[in-house]
Amino acid sequence: MENKIVQITQGHIQGISANGIVSWKGIPYAKPPVGEWRFQAPQPPEGWEGVREAFAFGPICPQAKPDEMFSFGAEAPVMSEDCLYLNVWAPEQIEHPLPVMVWIHGGAFMAGSSNIPLYDGTQMALRGDCVIVTINYRLGPLGFLHLSPLGEGFDSNPGLSDQVLALEWVQRNIAAFGGDPDNVTVFGESAGSMSIASLLAMPAAKGLFHRAAMQSGGAQSLPAIQAESIAAAYLRRLGVDGGNLEKLKAFPAEMLLSAAAGLQTENEEFPAMPFQPVVEPATLPIEPLQAISEGNAANIALIIGTNREEGAMFFRDESQRLEPDELARTLRAITGLDDVENWIGQYPADIEGQAALMTDLYFWRSALKLAEAQSAHAPVWMYRFDWSLPGHPFFGKAAHAAEIPFVFGNLVLLPRMGVRVEPSMQNLADAMRGAWQSFAVTGDPSTALLPWAAYDTDERTTMIFGTAILPEHDPEREKRETLFGGES
Question: What is the mean pLDDT of residues 293-317?
Answer without folding.
Answer: 94
